[in-house]
Amino acid sequence: MKILVCISHVPDTTSKINFTDDNTKFDTNGVQFVINPNDEFGLTRAMWFKEKQGATVDVVNVGGPETEPTLRKALAIGADSAIRVNTPATDGFAVAKQLANVVKDGGYDLVIAGRESIDYNGGMVPGMLAELIDANFVTNCISLEVDGTNAKAVREIDGGKETVSTSLPLVIGGQKGLVEESDLRIPNMRGIMQARQKPLKVLGPVDATKETTTVKFEKPEPKGAVTMVSPDNLDELVSLLHNEAKVI
Amino acid sequence: MSVLVYTESEEGKFKKVAFEVASYAKAVADQMGTTVTAITINANDVSELGTYGVDKVLKVNDSKLDAFNAKTYANILKQAAEKEGTKVVVVSASADSKYLAPLLAVGLDAGYASNVVETPTSASPFTVKRSAFTNKAFIFSTIETDVKIVGVSKNAFGLKENAASATAEDFSPSIPENGVHVDSVDKATNTVTIADAEIVVSAGRGLKGPENWGMIEDLAKVLGAATACSKPVSDLGWRPHGEHVGQTGKPVAANLYIAIGISGAIQHLAGINASKVKVVINTDPEAPFFKAADYGIVGDAFDVVPRLTEKLKEFKAQNA
Ligand SMILES: Cc1cc2nc3c(=O)[nH]c(=O)nc-3n(C[C@H](O)[C@H](O)[C@H](O)COP(=O)(O)OP(=O)(O)OC[C@H]3O[C@@H](n4cnc5c(N)ncnc54)[C@H](O)[C@@H]3O)c2cc1C
Ligand SMILES: Nc1ncnc2c1ncn2[C@@H]1O[C@H](COP(=O)(O)O)[C@@H](O)[C@H]1O
């Protein structure tokens, strides 16, 4: 089985989000970039398929040279090779088009992407990709087993979960649950050394028109001060929630 | 030309988000000088949609569609959009709508913006405001395609009554086969889900152990709330994974979010910030969560929560 894991390169979850150039550019100053957490769960599940079922695992990112350390980290975790499609990730559709081309060229059976990336929170690349390559698609995926060309997946739904059966070629949008938090791997020294020798191929982009454009960013209004209530006066809290906040 | 809105139902009854997206679609239609067409799949009584500004309802009823299937549903929405000559399709932020929207976008060659929090700031170019960076910022984006899909964030627009009388029309699209089959659905009944809840009661590691969640459930019960938890709590197996909220868990956009024994780490706050009113109960006056809260109580959960539940019971009894 040939697996492609889509990696989006995102600000670390503790990052303060700021903008420059009159709020038209994301300020990368001092921001640490990481593998999108949903993709890290997917990559770890892919390692399981590699170790238990002999799958090969490639990772891909659509982005500029600045994303290469993130791809190297994925190689250090254990991916066999990496691909970077050298073009800025302008919008979800354009990214999906680039990925579709990589999947077709590489003849991948299973594409593991994340439910959403934690920066733009589009939640659209995997579904669009699946549709573009006419593959089956399961998102919010919290469990995945593959047997030959058949797959069983569990998907989180509002208020519960759903078990589905499907077949390869398949695209999933993964998240925590696909593997447990404790299964995530921190690259060790050996992995990091090996990653330097592993192939990281840079591909030119195919033609893809974007459908949406980011015009500008805005930060939320600063929040008003907190109203403290004494634990001995819970009547007051109830009254504030009813009369002031009007939420009960 | 009309704005098409997908109004979701469950077991024949509309979900609350259906009315919110209908209200939103009405506002967009007014902006564009057109009408609202809703599409429903296996909903029983569609007359309610008129209350939220829907002019026409395309009713699809077919037992083959009882289980949600993203690809099939997306295809049906595509057929409806083409039939209506729709330029704007409105969907919600439910798990199902988020699943089908990207498929529909490819089917209709439509640009899709998710997590939209307001009506378009301009109709031409079609510009929307969406939340991003897990609620740490907003992005204004234009959608440049002829057909556009807008995914509306939960609780961002609210319900707006616009009494119109909706005419209903049966619609029988072709139902394509596809390669994902639902084998089983495992869904808690009689509990409020985090996605639907107006109020969410959430607790963290401050509760010390899973055996102490009884008081959290009691509080949630009086409020008709969903229960949630911080990430370590689900990692420790004290609560199911489905309750984990935050940047890497479920997003919460409730009217009221009550956080008990949760420190307020940035990853937690990011995921719950879209909630309107936040109440924090924590023993530590320095807990970062107080900075993000609207109402705070410095106190021991084991003392405060049971007493708060009693007070709320009294309040409910008086205001019933
Ligand atoms: C990549 C990444 C992603 C993450 N994603 C998420 C996420 O999505 N969601 C999430 O929640 N976390 C997430 N985290 C974890 C986050 O950083 C915090 O570790 C976590 O939110 C802390 O959980 P907590 O507040 O329950 O526990 P603690 O930080 O241990 O806080 C417990 C709190 O309870 C209070 N307390 C103790 N006893 C009592 C009492 N008797 N009564 C009242 N209060 C009491 C304490 O004062 C303290 O403030 C993520 C971390 C990383 C690195
Ligand atoms: N630029 C990118 N390169 C590779 N994969 C991506 C990229 N952007 C998004 N993805 C994948 O698509 C998933 C969902 O992203 P999004 O649609 O942006 O929320 C991510 O978790 C990644 O797996």
Overall geometry of chain B comes to globular
In the residues of chain A, how many domains can be counted? 1
**Ions and ligands:** flavin-adenine dinucleotide, adenosine monophosphate
Sheet with the most strands: spatial strand order of chain A: 11-10-9-12-8-1-6-7-13
Could you give the distance between the termini of chain A?
54 Å
Instruction: Output the radius of gyration of chain A.
Output: 21 Å
Provide the residue-averaged pLDDT of chain B: 96
Helicity range of chain A: 25-40%
What is the element string of chain B, with H for helices and E for strands?
Answer: EEEHEEHEHEEEEEEEEHEHEHEHEH
Determine the structural class of chain B based on helices, strands and strand pairing: alpha/beta
Write the element-wise H/E pattern of chain A from the N-terminal end onward.
Answer: EEEEEHEHEHEHEEEEHEEEH
Largest sheet: number of strands, sense, barrel closure of chain A: 9 strands, mixed
Task: Give the CATH level 1 class of the largest domain in chain B.
Answer: Alpha Beta
Helical segment count of chain A: 6
Largest β sheet strand count, sense and barrel closure of chain B:
7 strands, parallel
Strand content of chain A: 25-35%
Number of beta strands of chain B: 18
Unreliably modeled segments of chain A: none
* CATH class assignment of chain A: Alpha Beta
CATH topology of the largest domain in chain B: Rossmann fold
